[in-house]
Write a structure and sequence with these properties.
With 111 residues, this protein is α+β, with helices and mostly antiparallel strands. The chain has a single domain (6-110), classed as DOPA-like domains (Alpha-Beta Plaits). 28% of the residues lie in helices and 29% in strands. The chain has a 5-stranded antiparallel beta sheet. The two termini are 21 Å apart.
Length: 111
């Protein structure tokens, strides 16, 4: 079994929900040992919507995930483990909060 070294939670938003996503991500980074990425206002990587990445260690999962469940303010959140097996992490091991979206997994063909 691969080792989970951390997690990425991607908070999806659009032009109408950008401020809400900013608030959710800022608060998560304030409350927990979370590395907040940029607010991408274009699709990045396999993600089908604008997003902000929250990176956190495996040991923070039990703090961050329940908080996101209760405080995502209706936004879709896609969370996956980091094992080094990128396709499997995104395709088979993901947790969705809100709408499940189709990812562009073709980018992993190049890895």
């Amino acid at each position: 079994m691969p080792e989970i070294t951390g997690y990425h939670a991607h908070v999806y938003f659009d032009a109408d929900t950008r401020d809400t996503a900013q608030q959710v991500c800022d608060e998560a980074a304030r409350l927990f040992p979370v590395q907040m990425g940029r607010m991408h206002t274009r699709n990045v990587g396999p993600h089908p919507r604008w997003s902000c990445q929250l990176g956190f260690a495996a040991g923070a999962f039990d703090q961050v995930m329940p908080w996101l469940m209760l405080n995502r303010q209706g936004l879709t959140v896609f969370t996956h483990p980091e094992t080094g097996e990128h396709l499997e992490d995104h395709r088979d091991r993901a947790i969705w909060m809100g709408e499940m979206l189709d990812l562009d997994l073709s980018i992993f063909d190049k890895l």
